[in-house]
UniProtKB/TrEMBL annotation:
Keywords for the protein's UniProt record, in alphabetical order: DNA-binding, Transcription, Transcription regulation
Protein name: AraC family transcriptional regulator
Domain HTH araC/xylS-type: 179-277
PROSITE patterns membership: HTH_ARAC_FAMILY_2
Cross-referenced Gene3D superfamilies: Homeodomain-like
Length: 295
């Protein structure tokens, strides 16, 4: 079964404690999010295996069937299938305050949560999906999300530990349509994103959305997406020596040839040259004790 990505960008996020942001089910590809995701994520393995690397860890955790991975918003992470095309994952991402999350044992640290059976969780994900996207129903989707959290709590056999002293997360500017759209482009830069679909999701025409982007960021949505992808590619070149240029290009949603051409246009050198320059700067900085500069 595959449930294509559905997003709820126009939701009233403070009407209920939790609101669903994105939901779906797919064969999971490799993802690197060096600044984390803009919402809190629950990833439920339906079949296959994946590996996840979290900030502060020197190891990769294995995510198997009947396992739920919780990653709080803004927490840097990367995850990959153990074998290409062999990690079927259902996902729900949501917004909610720290106090609301803490009451369910979901704090500001990631968790790998074993469950007795993922079948009921997968059923609830599908039901949330049915009430998202074009058919988004805030109340029903949130009610089903609470049902999913209840089932997760019931099956985790006490593995979730509420952090009752967590303070509420500071309010953000998510209510701004253009900022929601920009966050969505950051979160899903690795996908083939249609600006027409994005505009439809936030309830604006393409012309209106472009005008909002120009007013806020002095750039169009497509130019903003290009910048997001190139910036992510630049960071991956510096921090992931094991990734080829082609792999990095695919991670950020660009064809390798196009990525190389646009990277050179933005930074004056091709990605391979940039990587060599940064490696040399790092060696010199290690000898001198100075931090390497960014191009």
């Amino acid at each position: 079964m595959k449930l294509t990505l559905r997003s709820n960008l126009s939701s009233e996020e403070h009407v209920v404690p939790f609101t669903v942001y994105t939901v779906g089910m797919e064969q999971q590809s490799a993802i690197s999010r060096l600044e984390g995701f803009s919402a809190h994520q629950l990833l439920i393995t339906a079949s296959g295996k994946g590996r996840v690397h979290l900030l502060g860890q020197n190891k990769w955790d294995i995510i198997e069937e009947n396992t739920v991975l919780y990653i709080p918003g803004g927490f840097p992470n990367e995850y990959v299938p153990v074998a290409d095309g062999d990690w079927l994952v259902a996902f729900v991402s949501f917004h909610g305050s720290a106090i609301a999350r803490a009451s369910w044992g979901l704090g500001d640290a990631p968790s790998v949560i074993p469950v007795r059976s993922a079948a009921r969780l997968l059923e609830l994900v599908e039901r949330i999906w049915n009430h998202s996207g074009a058919d988004y129903d805030t109340w029903t989707a949130s009610e089903l999300l609470f049902s999913l959290l209840t089932e997760l709590r019931k099956q985790s056999s006490g593995d979730l530990n509420p952090a009752a002293l967590l303070r509420p997360a500071p309010e953000t500017s998510r209510s701004s349509t253009v900022l929601k759209a920009a966050k969505f482009l950051q979160d899903y830069m690795h996908r083939d994103i249609s600006i027409a679909h994005l505009a439809e999701q936030v309830g604006y025409s393409q012309k209106q959305l472009t005008r909002l982007f120009l007013q806020t960021f002095q750039t169009t949505p497509l130019q903003y997406l290009r910048l997001v992808r190139l910036t992510a590619g630049q960071l991956l070149l510096e921090t992931n020596e094991s990734l080829s240029i082609g792999q990095i290009a695919r991670h950020v949603g660009m064809e390798p040839t196009y990525f190389t051409r646009e990277f050179r246009r933005a930074y004056g050198v091709v990605p391979g040259e940039y990587r060599l320059i940064k490696a040399q700067e790092a060696r010199e900085a290690a000898r001198s004790g100075n931090a390497p500069r960014r191009i």
